Amino acid sequence: MSRNAKINGLLLLLVAALAVLPLALGLGDHKEEPFTGADGEAETAITEIRPDYEPWFSPLYEPPSGEIESALFSLQAALGAGVLAYYFGLRRGRRQGEQRAAARAGSGATASEADANADADVHATATSAATVTAEATATPDKGA
Q: What values do phi and psi take at 22, rounded to 5?
């Protein structure tokens, strides 16, 4: 097993532990709504400390239900992930373009030859990633 595979496995176990441990340990069992967001927790704490407190402003839009609020939050997270993925993809593409230009300049190869070599490198990387993914999904889970 390669070093990257070990690191990825360890990170996956860590994420799973972060998701399962609060449920397994019963954290939040003493609360009416055990896993509310930070806004709800802050409102409760402020009301306990100072019952006559009035907020400075009210929300511009109050969703009619918790499900819609959750869906809007998920949409916001998905849009943010899309923006980050676009940014990192753009950076990687620019870096690959710079590498192709440097390879062309250094080897004296024509643009089409350098592009063909770079495309072969990208294809090899994608093929190895697909192979790793296929192996990971085909391997039976020994821990279950």
A: -60, -35
